[in-house]
Specification:
7 helices, FMN_Rdtase-like_dom, Rossmann fold, NADPH-dependent FMN reductase
């Protein structure tokens, strides 16, 4: 049994990416699943002066340890103006300053969603290209378009049959890759 950490890159209290990653976690059986919110690990905006004067916070170290304890991660990234949110970028900045290879050997499934037709695909592609710099092995990715139209929060399920099949396939492939 593998320990899989699920998180979203958003700091919104109504984050659809957190809802989507929580749904993904609910679809994984036979593994040790944990869902966290990055907002539980409050970090200031990264700056070299803050790093030099205050060092690394307890929140940063706790988040780092959560990641290190996991065998794999499922991350749902949100998008602001065609890019990852400043909030998620800030988290990556802090983690990479604490340990450049904070994702060393971690298998990662990336997801993204938005209410737009592209499903935050630009943020997903950026994240897919950047995480390997920190040691991640990006195994799978899935962009989920038009969240409000294609996901039923009432039923906690993907309402579009084709998207459901595609998502299920990607998630199952990811879990299968963890066993190899």
């Amino acid at each position: 049994m593998k320990k899989i950490l699920f998180l979203a890159g958003s700091n919104s209290s109504k984050s659809i990416n957190h809802k989507f990653v929580s749904f993904a976690a609910s679809q994984v059986a036979g593994q040790n699943v944990e869902i966290i919110k990055l907002t539980d690990y409050d970090l200031p905006m990264f700056g070299e002066d803050i790093e030099r004067e205050k060092g690394y916070s307890a929140n940063l170290k706790m988040l780092y340890n959560k990641i290190r304890e996991a065998d794999a991660l499922v991350i749902s990234v949100n998008e602001h103006n065609g890019m990852v949110s400043a909030y998620f970028k800030n988290t990556i900045d802090w983690l990479s300053r604490l340990d450049r290879n904070f994702l060393d050997g971690k298998k990662v499934m990336l997801m993204s969603t938005s209410n737009g037709r592209r499903g935050a695909a630009s943020a997903l592609e950026y994240t897919k290209s950047i995480l390997p710099r920190f040691g991640a092995i990006v195994v799978e990715s899935f962009s989920f378009p038009s969240y409000s139209h294609n996901f039923s929060e009432e039923n906690q399920s993907i309402s579009d049959e084709i998207l459901l099949l595609g998502f299920t396939d990607v998630l199952q492939n990811f879990v299968h890759q963890l066993e190899q």
